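Hi D.,

Good news: the full-assembly prediction came through. Inputs first.
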Amino acid sequence: SQQGEEDPQALSIQEGENATMNCSYKTSINNLQWYRQNSGRGLVHLILIRSNEREKHSGRLRVTLDTSKKSSSLLITASRAADTASYFCATVGMDSSYKLIFGSGTRLLVRP
Amino acid sequence: SAVISQKPSRDICQRGTSLTIQCQVDSQVTMMFWYRQQPGQSLTLIATANQGSEATYESGFVIDKFPISRPNLTFSTLTVSNMSPEDSSIYLCSVQGSRPNNYGYTFGSGTRLTVV
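Then the structure:
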């Protein structure tokens, strides 16, 4: 089962623009993570934000977390064609299972 | 972070047969996770594999269909049994970061399975 929904399902932007993806989840979390997947290949971990954090930056990535709304957003600034990929949020719950549960994903297309 | 070698990378199988997917990790890990990604979809957790105990399956997945072995702390296999075209998916294994609340998880490169 999926933890939650991401929106938009698909996003098309021009190179140089910013891309924002949103993620909602259902249960209390230990942390939330974002992953990128290029063309059905393996997943690459982008960034992790813990439940007691509200914002985190890594290069051109900015992640926010609002635990009261059970939502997160991923902002990619100054997008490049190479950013074209599917992006997934995933959560680790408060239990000791350490299971990583994925959202539905956003397909990002960055047009040159 | 850990490095995972997953094989085969792809296979085309006849319905009714079984396929075993292997994942080898370059370090000892307590938990390994198996996922299915159906075409155009997100990842769905199949089961958690712990060394020395039975795998824990998620709702909708059963041991008879997806038997898992975990003989040691660096290796695991997932078998897709009695396959049908609906089993055509990418199957991935994963391990958690060395500090689960600080580092992301590492994934194998996936096995793209087509059942004909």
